[in-house]
Amino acid sequence: MTRPPTAAQRRVIDAADPVTGRLRGTPAQLAALVKRGLAFRHPRPPHDHFLTPAGHRIRETPVTAAPRPAAAQPEAGVFTARVGGEEDAPQDGPARLREVHSAWQGLLELRRMTNRDGAADRPCGWERSHLVQAAALALEAAGHHPARPDGDGYRVRATGQPEAVAVHGPPQALREWAATLERAGWQAGEYTEPRTRRRYLLASPRRV
Q1: What count of Cα atoms within 13 Å lies in the side-chain half-sphere of residue 177?
Q2: Looking at residue 62, what is its pLDDT?
Q3: Local structure of residue 138 (DSSP, 8 states)
Q4: Domain boundaries, the chain
Q5: Mean pLDDT, to the nearest integer, of 167-181?
Q6: 134 sits in which H/E element
């Protein structure tokens, strides 16, 4: 069984950029994380270090074994994509716009650094393992609004299908949302729920 990271290594992992996984630490700390498969050194200058998928899993695992409560609030200073329907969603305004823009630019950089061909127009591994958050970020970064608890707007939800999310909302908005996701590197199509007959989008990250 793999040993858990040391306290110092865990601090470096926890301080990683929440979107790109960019790390800051001493050369010895970063080298140790690379050796354990939790980080990699980018081959292009400035040769920054980033979390691997295994490192991201460590970062998302609470230090204690106790699971987080379902209603736990995100940590202060950590960007959280708005998936729609949040009771205590952040207020709209210039600060939120800057956060979303920064997160989206960081995600594009992560695509360039982790896709083998350096493509920024195609989702990367992080997005495939965080489907709901990635789709929601793409929508909000394009200026669409997430739904309030009792209002219109998009709601991104997980599905039982591999690498697919459902986007619910007003039928007249689905086509525009689909176009946005397609520009962001996703495939999206409209479907009808068998029981409710409501239209929704089914979206998945494009591979080529």
Answers
A1: 30
A2: 62
A3: H
A4: 7-60, 94-205
A5: 96
A6: helix 131-141
- Quote the Cα angle for 144-139-108, to 5°: 135
C-alpha pair distances (Å), 80 with each of 26, 140, 187: 28, 11, 23
What single-letter DSSP state applies at residue 191?
A: E
- Reduced to 3 states, what is the DSSP secondary structure of residue 205? strand
Return d(Cα 86, Cα 136) in angstroms, integer. Answer: 12
Decide which of 9 and 75 is more confident: 9
Please name the helix (run of DSSP H) or strand (run of DSSP E) that holds residue 180, with its range, or none.
Answer: helix 171-183
> Hey, is 204 helix, strand or coil?
strand
Q: How does DSSP classify residue 64?
A: S
User: Which of the 8 DSSP states describes residue 16?
Assistant: S
Which pLDDT value is given to residue 19?
75
**In whole angstroms, how far apart are CA 127 and each of 5, 72, 130, 169?**
24, 22, 5, 22
Residues with Cβ < 8 Å from 9, sequence gap 6 or more? 29, 32, 33, 36, 38
Residue 117 CB: number of other CB atoms within 10 A? Answer: 6
End-to-end CA separation in angstroms for the chain: 36
| Contact assessment for residue 103 and residue 141, using Cβ atoms and an 8 Å cutoff | yes
